[in-house]
Specification:
2 domains, alpha/beta, TIM Barrel, binds 3-hydroxy-3-carboxy-adipic acid, binds copper (II) ion, 12% strand
Length: 444
């Protein structure tokens, strides 16, 4: 595949997500919490596949020279990407590189489609990280990028002043002025999460005005809980590329969650930003990610089951009369609905694992979930009329694998209701009834 042809032939959409779950996301301490540290090669292939099927066209990976393992995984991820080209078109794999020839050469060797290049430009970064002046940064980066361009004119190149929001605007301009004719995008990472929506809007406007021919990319950390609102503001101010991760995982408290951003753009009727994204796949992709972190989709993630779960008695009663009473947004469009979570021949083992463990309360491990999934997939084609896939799965788990549910006291079992019906439809009163769409969640 000729990458130069590819990028030139591609017309970027109004909003391009650059997913960095496999780079920034791997820097999340959540992976350390259960001694996982890195995604396995199989995890990476699954995440890549899910992102591409969701409609993401740009995926950021570590520079291959960070470790032998990362280098080997480039090949696997490229293979997964290549398998999906006929179905979904080309997806660009970008290497996150320091402005340093070693990183660049390693990225070129593995066939990266582009370089997400960065170097610190704030006073602190310059004093304590690399010690270069702004003049040196600009001059050296220019030289490096000119060299790259000579041999790789079609390579996608982004340049970021790391810690851009603690970099004075005129300092950023001093560096970016020297590079504007050479790069495809300028990044503006909010490395330590100091940006506010007002500051973001002002910065994006200033950069757009000064560099009308260079696209802008954002990367917002969540130290103040602003990573979502900052990304939203950036998009509305005309930023075209936003870096996100699944569930917003990343260094410290992470960055913008992909589905949270798209969900908010939908609510704010920014429909032109949503072209090509499979929004109904939002909840399933979050479940897949949560499962890899051995946790539930976090309650602060807007596209979560928690957002359709009602505990207060007064709320539950009103919800059963009409779901709009305590749910303002169409979460069903984002896949928080029985039909998306559950369960058919295409379900992956993560969804099966999640359903059996978190929704039904069975005690089971990953290996068992994989075995059950294989059996379920064989049998689901022969499902008898009147039996739901969920019932079949529960039957396999209970009767063939002998799985036990965790014993939950009745008063707690009855305490929480999840609403997994379309927001437009009226829910029926029911106990554990997958057909009615009202299920009780077992607390564990
Ligand atoms: C890092 C820092 C970074 C880089 C972002 C970028 C940040 O972990 O190397 O290259 O745009 O937040 O500044 O993630
Ligand atoms: Cu970051």
């Amino acid at each position: 595949m000729n990458r130069q042809f590819c990028f030139q032939a591609y017309r970027p959409r109004r909003l391009e997500i650059i997913d960095t779950t496999l780079r920034e996301g791997q820097q999340s301490s959540l992976l350390h919490d259960h001694h996982k540290y890195f995604f396995t090669p199989a995890d990476k292939q699954e995440i890549t596949r899910a992102l591409i099927l969701y409609g993401v066209k740009f995926i950021e990976l570590f520079a291959p020279n960070v470790s032998a393992r990362e280098q080997a995984d480039w090949e696997l991820i490229k293979a997964t990407r290549n398998e999906l080209i006929t179905q979904k078109g080309y997806t660009f794999l970008l290497a996150h590189v320091r402005a340093h020839p070693q990183d660049v050469e390693a990225a070129l060797r593995v066939g990266a489609d582009g370089l997400n290049m960065y170097i610190g430009t704030s006073d602190v970064a310059r004093s304590y990280s690399h010690g270069k002046t702004l003049e040196e940064i600009g001059k050296q980066a220019r030289q490096l990028i000119e060299d790259i361009r000579r041999n790789h004119p079609g390579l996608i190149i982004r340049f970021s002043g790391e810690d851009a929001f603690r970099t004075r605007e005129e300092d950023l301009f001093r560096v970016y002025d020297q590079l504007q004719d050479l790069v495809d995008r300028f990044g503006t990472p909010d490395t330590v999460g100091v940006a506010t929506p007002a500051l973001v809007a002002q910065r994006v406007r200033a950069l757009r005005q000064r560099y009308p021919d260079v696209a802008l990319e954002g990367h917002f950390h969540d130290d103040r809980g602003f990573s979502l609102i900052n990304a939203l503001e950036a998009v509305k101010s005309g930023m075209q590329y936003i870096q996100t991760t699944l569930l917003g995982i990343g260094e410290r408290s992470g960055i913008t969650s992909m589905t949270a951003l798209l969900f908010n753009l939908y609510i704010d009727r920014e429909y032109d930003c949503l072209e090509g994204y499979h929004l109904r796949g939002s909840y399933p992709i979050n479940v897949m990610m949560a499962d890899k972190l051995r946790k539930l989709v976090p309650s602060k993630e807007p596209v979560s089951l928690t957002n359709r779960t009602h505990a207060a008695g007064v709320h539950q009663k009103a919800m059963l009369n009409h779901s709009a009473t305590y749910e303002a947004f169409p979460l069903d469009q984002f896949g928080v609905t029985e039909s998306e979570i559950l369960l058919g021949p295409l379900s992956g083992w993560n969804v099966v694992h999640y359903f059996l463990r978190e929704i039904c309360g069975f005690a089971l491990d990953e290996a068992t979930a994989r075995q059950i999934t294989a059996l379920f997939k064989q049998r689901v084609y022969d499902l008898q009329p009147g039996t739901s896939p969920a019932a079949m799965l529960i039957d396999i788990a209970r009767n063939e694998f002998g799985l036990q549910t965790v014993n939950v006291p009745e008063e707690f079992r009855r305490a929480v209701k999840q609403n997994l019906t379309d927001t437009s439809a009226q829910a029926e009163v029911g106990e554990v009834s997958h057909a009615s769409g009202v299920i009780l969640r077992s607390r564990r």
